[in-house]
Amino acid sequence: MNSRLLILLLLILSAAAIWGAFAFDDSSREAVRKAQGPEWKKSTSRTFHSLVRRYGDWPWLMLAGGIGLGAARVFRSRKWQRILIAAMLASTVAGLTINISRLTTGRTRPGADKKIEQGFHGPWADGQLTIGKHAYNSFPSGHTATAFGFAGVILFASPGVGLVAMAIAGLIAFSSVMVDAHHLSDVTVSTLIALTVAWLTWRWVEKSGDEVWAKFLKKLQSLRG
User: What is the pTM of this model?
Assistant: First the structure.
């Protein structure tokens, strides 16, 4: 398939996915409420999804990547060193991109105080800045972005292992919805952005990674000398 046609198709599918996510935000929220049940706050399910979000955050992804990178060095796997470095970079870039952008959207989290009107309020609402306020930092999802940025690189570089990584990233996104931290559209938009970042990062590493790394080592040696 022609590359331009493929990109156009992906853009159309992405637009459709985003439109669908926003269209089903309310109904998906109702489905989550029903799934939670009256004993949700004391349930093992809530504990599980909370732990998934906690340990699926950026610092833990970097720790996992660092451990994997160390193992790859021990086993002298240049391929996986490249993949994991790229995954850690993509996760970081995707996370920064999303976290900076959501400072200005001011979207109310689904689990926010009922006194706060749901919607996009921008950087200013009710006579106060929404920037940095947890209740107004729903869109897009930071956890989802870092998870799919990391998993996306692995998927593009090694599809077999990547499917497992994507399943874990999907669980992190799902848990974000289940614990009332994000809307369906929050995680959908983050996923698409993160996968784009992952693809661009892996493509760059494949083409220029060795050259950049060689220049870095040469510069480091000159500084030591």
Answer: 0.92
Per residue in 2-61, pLDDT tens? 788 988 999 999 999 999 999 999 999 999 999 998 899 999 999 999 999 999 999 999
The structure tokens listed for 224 are 């030591």
Tell me, yes or no, whether 35 lies in a domain.
Answer: no
Q: Per the domain annotation, does 122 fall within a domain?
A: yes
Question: Is 29 domain-assigned?
Answer: no
The residue range of the domain holding 44 is 40-111+118-220
Give the burial string for 8-47 (b: 16+ CB within 10 Å, else e): eeeeeebeeeeeebeeebeebbeebeeebeeeeeeeeebe
Judge contact between 168 and 135, C-beta under 8 A. Answer: no
CA distance 184 to 187: 6
C-alpha to C-alpha distance for 50 and 62, rounded to whole angstroms: 19
Cα dihedral sign, 184-190-194-196? positive
- Domain of residue 135, CATH code: 1.20.144
The beta-carbon contacts of 130-134 under 8 Å, at least 24 apart in sequence, are 130/106, 131/103, 131/104, 131/106, 132/103, 134/109
Domain total for the chain? 1
Q: Is residue 2 domain-resident?
A: no
